[in-house]
Amino acid sequence: MNDGQMLDEVNESLQNKPKEIDTSANEAPIETESAESTADGEDGIDYALVVSEDLRILREEFPELSEIEDICELNDPLRYAALRDLGLSPEEAYLATSKRQKKDNRSHLFATKTVSVSRNGAMSDSELAAAREIFTDISDREIRKLYKRVTK
Q1: Residue 80 Cα distances to 6, 115, 119, 138, angstroms
Q2: What interhelical angle do 140-151 and 125-134 show, nearest 10?
Q3: What is the DSSP letter of 50?
Q4: CB-based contact 94:62 (threshold 8 Å)
Q5: Helices 47-61 and 90-97 sit at what angle, rounded to 10 degrees?
Q6: pTM of the model
Q7: Residues 74 and 118 in one domain
């Protein structure tokens, strides 16, 4: 399953459950990590431990999250939790819920040296520069004449 299909599946499941999320948010306040730490989940999972581990992973991966103290401080914590329940990793769930712009660095690019394609008997720029250093009292035109005469 590729990323596009996974995101479509997640979006479909979220669109099918918007009333559940909205009503639960209106009926009860969002539980914080401290409230979850007193009891285990229905399936025996300690959600406080999961939340603290997610927060640790997110802080390591994304430096802008180093100042947050709780997962509830994310842009959309309910959607983050829903995505985590669907099986996404903490990084994937955060990237799916954040409004973060991808950095446009061009680190994958590298500078290339331009190589001039010289015709038969013509000097390249680097050869002309080297000849200028050697023959300081001769003009470029005379250097090119000498080069043609020598290379024929």
Answers
A1: 15, 52, 63, 73
A2: 110
A3: H
A4: yes
A5: 70
A6: 0.41
A7: no
* Confidence at 115, pLDDT banded by 50, 70, 90: low
| 114 neighbors 144 (Cβ within 8 angstroms) | no
71 shares its domain with 142: no
- Of the candidates 10, 3, 2, 4, the residue with the CA atom closest to the CA atom of residue 76: 10
**One-letter amino acid for residue 60 of the chain:** E
Which residues 6+ apart lie within 8 Å of 130 measured at CB? none
In a domain, 82, yes or no: yes
* Mean local confidence (pLDDT), 15-28: 50
Q: Is 94 in contact with 80 (CB distance < 8 Å)?
A: yes
- Residue 55 near residue 71 (C-beta atoms within 8 A): yes
